[in-house]
Amino acid sequence: MPINEAVVAMMALAMVTAVVLPVSLAIARRMQNKISAPAPHEMSAELDERLHRMEQAIERVAIEVERVGEGQRFVTQVLANAPARPLAASASAAERLEEKK
User: Measuring CA to CA, how many Å separate 11 from each of 46, 51, 91?
Assistant: First the structure.
């Protein structure tokens, strides 16, 4: 029976090593990467100003796109609510306008 207990102990040690070794290596690698990571660079005043101008320009474009969308929705609503007139009637009205001139 002592041989069986020795085998069980060896298997338990092997299992613990198989689990603990990769975890400890991963933790060590993560700690090393944190230490060797370069510090972030400071933004220059010129870059900060440029980013600020870009942000303002993007906001202006977004406002203009919204205005165009509102105009398109308004025109679509007006056309949807407008009474449908036959083309002949509108053509004759255009002819009457030309005759008056």
Answer: 64, 61, 97
